[in-house]
Design a protein that fits this description.
The structure is a single chain. The protein is an all-alpha fold and 376 residues long. Helix 6 crosses helix 8, helix 9 packs antiparallel against helix 10 and helix 10 packs across helix 15. The two termini are 29 Å apart.
Length: 376
């Protein structure tokens, strides 16, 4: 297993805690038109439809995003282009798309600062007044620092009536330790709240315990696999589930929350050999609801993180209506990490390209910008 199978946070991409733009310019969580997220996606994975692929050897050689930093970058020039695009009657959306989709997140933060220096105005407020709906949500997401966007999405998922558990799972069960620690700090500095307290008050039971475990950002990240331990863990999981009446949930939580992703993959292989059934389907039989979805998300990330996100994207668009918030969140958050691999997996799993599906599910400038980010 090459060490590159698990994408690290892009170095230097995150401003230190406290270095975030004041959230004043961003809509308060929950402040997007149309609610957040849109159409409901069944919390079930299409388990029976597409076998969950293992990580092909070719894809473990490191991952890459679809957006690279622009080489001859000039923040002032870009800020000027955006100012002109929003000046006078109408808005030149194409000019905005061209800048936003071709600059890294770090560069977009510099454009925001340059705009304020040059115009004495807040770029985010100006964009909000010019745009609306999904296009506004996508552009604002692109201008949030990565860590802030994750923290903001978590806050949003727990604010007001009801909790969007899928968002909590998607972020807390898939990020690296460092990303989670950065999110926890940002959540506190930007929203003045304690993430763990919010999780505890918004969730309950075994699902709450799983998320609190994830929020610690303490998963083992050693890439070396201990096969003896994998064998023992597989045995323990079998005895905690299939091998007894009832389920010992704490055993699943302990192993799935602490072991490294490569270690979990080895455990899944050992389990299949021992139980003649794969661990994902055992989890489906032993658990239900949110805790089932959370445990499966962890196992799917261990098997193949790109496939996990490909499946989430597919679910956000299949059937009637589109869950635009999930579509936006995954495209934006993975655009500089592993969106290339997600696209490859998407084609492999669904026999159509991600851009084809986006093109038929979206329209207007929103479609243009999504396709510019995803690339062909």
């Amino acid at each position: 297993m090459g060490g590159g199978a698990y994408p690290q946070a892009p170095t230097g991409g995150y401003p230190g805690a406290g270095g975030y733009p004041a959230p004043g310019g961003y809509p308060a969580p929950g402040g997007y038109p149309g609610g957040f997220p849109g159409g409901q996606v069944p919390s079930q994975y299409p388990g029976g439809q597409v076998p969950f692929p293992n990580q092909p050897a070719a894809m473990t050689q490191g991952t890459q995003g679809t957006i690279q930093p622009a080489s001859n970058f000039d923040a002032m020039r870009d800020a000027e282009i955006l100012r002109k695009a929003m000046k006078g009657l109408g808005t030149d959306e194409q000019a905005i798309v061209d800048v936003v989709a071709n600059r890294s997140n770090d560069q977009r933060q510099k454009i925001k600062a340059a705009f304020k220096t040059m115009c004495g105005k807040d770029l985010i407020k100006d964009l909000k007044s010019e745009l609306s709906g999904n296009m506004e949500e996508l552009i604002l997401a692109m201008f949030m620092p990565s860590t802030y966007y994750d923290a903001w999405s978590l806050r949003n998922a727990m604010k007001g009536a009801g909790t969007q558990e899928r968002v909590l799972i998607e972020i807390l069960c898939t990020r690296t330790n460092q990303e989670i620690r950065d999110i926890v700090r940002c959540y506190e500095s930007e929203f003045g709240r304690d993430l763990e307290k919010d999780i505890r008050s918004d969730t309950s039971g075994h699902f709450e315990r799983l998320l609190v475990s994830m929020r610690q950002g303490n998963r083992d990240e050693n890439l070396n696999v201990n096969h003896q331990m994998a064998q023992e863990d597989a045995q323990r999981l079998y005895q905690a589930g299939e091998g007894r009446l009832g389920t010992d949930e704490s055993c699943f939580n302990m192993i799935l929350a602490t072991r490294s992703f490569p270690q979990l993959r080895a455990t899944m292989e050992a389990y299949s050999r021992m139980a003649n059934r794969d661990l994902l389907s055992s989890v489906s039989r032993e658990f239900s609801g949110n805790v089932e979805s959370g445990l499966k998300a962890i196992l799917q990330c261990a098997l193949n993180r790109s496939a996990f996100f490909a499946e989430r994207l597919y679910c956000s668009m299949k059937g009637a209506g589109t869950d635009d918030s999930t579509l936006v969140r995954i495209v934006v958050t993975r655009s500089e990490i592993d969106l290339e691999q997600i696209k490859q997996m998407f084609t492999q799993m669904y026999q159509k390209t991600l851009s084809t599906m986006i093109a038929s599910d979206t329209s207007g400038d929103y479609r243009k910008l999504l396709l510019a980010i995803v690339g062909q």
